Structure formats: structure tokens, C-alpha cells
Amino acid sequence: YSLPFCKPENIVYKAENLGEVLRGDRIVNTLYTVLMNLDKKCEVLCKKPDNPIKLTVEESKLLAERIQEE
């Protein structure tokens, strides 16, 4: 959640095992709900039509850098 996108109100980090720590993985809660064997239409996760996200130049550069690094 280091980029300015939708995130939960309370971010909870889960305990990690050694392999996850060495890979640099971070396990946190998310706004997504994943259900198996259930047909569902597209759904907007975070909608703020009256308050769109406006990136600063620094945030925009960081976002582009993260995309390049995959």
C-alpha cells in the first residue's frame, strides 16, 4: 500500500515464515473478496467520483517505476 490507491481502513500484517521474509513478501489484508465457483459481474472496488485521485509528480514517477520493475 505504498502507492495512493484504495486500501482498507485498518491494514493488518500477517506473520511470515522464513521463505516469505527472504523473498520480501508482505502478507496484508485487502479489499478484495475471492469466492470459488460463483459467477459474478464486474464490481467497482473503490469509487470516489467526487474525489478522484490526483498524483503528484513524485507519486507519478514512483508509479511508473513500480510498473517498470513489475
From TrEMBL:
The keyword GTP-binding does not apply. Its main location: Golgi. GO terms for cellular component: Golgi apparatus; membrane. GO terms for biological process: protein localization to membrane. InterPro entries: EMP70 (IPR004240). It is a multi-pass membrane protein. Pfam families: EMP70. Keywords: Golgi apparatus, Membrane, Signal, Transmembrane, Transmembrane helix. It is found in: Golgi apparatus; Membrane. Belongs to the nonaspanin (TM9SF) (TC 9.A.2) family. This is Transmembrane 9 superfamily member. It comes from Hypophthalmichthys nobilis.
